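INFO batch 0412 | record 1 of 1 | parsing
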Amino acid sequence: MSELVLVLDFGGQYKELIARAVRGLSVYSEIRNGSMSAEEIKALSPIGIILTGGPNSAYLPDSPRCDPDIFTLGIPILGICYGMQMMCHMLGGEVQRGEHGEYGVVTAVLDPRSILFQHIGALSAVLMSHNDRVKKLPNGFVNRGKTTDCVHAACEDAERKLYGVQFHPETEQTTEGRNIMRRFLYDICAAKGDYRINDYINEQIRRIRQEVGNEKILLALSGGVDSSVCAALLSKAVPGQLVCIFVDHGFMRQHEGDEIERIFSGKALQFIRVNAQKRFLQKIKGIAEPEQKRKRIGEEFIRVFEEEAKKLGDIRFLAQGTIYPDVIESGGKLGATIKSHHNVGGIPDDLVFNKIVEPLSGLFKDEVRLLGRKLGLPAALVRRQPFPGPGLAIRIMGEVTAEKLEILRIADKIVREEIEKLSRKAHQYFAVLTNVRTVGVKGDDRTYDPVIAVRAVVTGDFMTCEYAAVPHKTLGRIASRITSEIKVVSRVVYDITSKPPATIEWE
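INFO prediction complete | emitting tokens
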């Protein structure tokens, strides 16, 4: 079993970045609730603890606290932002509201006498995001960093192995953040760096075989990255025992349904493709409001899955492609309720499963992609962009028809083909069929056709994004191809809105 670093969460927006940064340095990490008791922590034998940031003020009586006994366990602790403030407050220091906040990248003066900051230079760019600050350090702590507006930007009590930074070393904006994290893990926690994705595969295969035995497992295969990697792992663990139901609702991108069938028909599993295109299209006929479209598609997916599952008889195990961020959002209660995790919106109550199998629940998205490649899935599948469950139905503004779907499939294919030629690609890119019509000219004829919008964004977490600066030459080719290859389109526009205020998807 790999060494463990616990990330205790106090509501910080970067908690996942912290855990991923630790794993990226070959040390296994898990995110747990900040209120976890010292006894529970001790039982897990972590080599280190990281206290996350959070939106609260450490000096207020109702703000979240860790168990004070964790500071006496002798386990190295790194407090980040609120984590540092909370630690200082609980150990007798003083935290107060600053005269003004400190947000964005600033220059910090870091003391090389701290193990954390050795060999990185006295001046370093760091990301700050706080209003409160430590005014007085607890007894035993010494100052190890400052900025123009923050006198205690870093501190430590090396004897007790307690360290704090007001800035965020887990982010890319902190230029030496990776080195600081490495120092904490290897020089302070004495990590061996024994976390490898191959070890995860072998451990999950062992667990699946032990748990499932010779019984069958049912998986709703969407064709997305998570469910596809889950299917590949299960088929490797228990070949011939996995039954995958792929419901093709007709809103996939061009040729995707056939590609998914081709990939998984060659695996050691039972693959069932349900071609329900007409059924889904009829279900949303006349519906223009996006939330209604989403709900009707989700409900119909459940009905189709239910019908197919009942044909198979008694299958006691249900597999889900739940990944670690899903677990975190649901409070860490793995498999407590099928409906909270399932990527198709819920499983009917009368379909009873004795056990839920979630072999990816310890992984982040980038690790899932790596796992997929290790399991032999094609790069095109594991690098697949995020794709909404309702598919192209919510990239068509207004009512969805077969004709509109065909227009959008061709436009979307063109957008993806042209952007994929670039050496620096956007993180997500697609076409949208708007419900706006404009006047155009093709040949000598006046046209009045729908507008295609192109969306391409760059993002690290898909919580926020900036529009991608796609070269004008590429945009010109996209517009030329779309208007030439789709006779009923004569105008293409490019969406240059960031998130916020917009969202990545249009609906």
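INFO post-check: DSSP finds 15 helices and 18 strands in the chain.
INFO record closed
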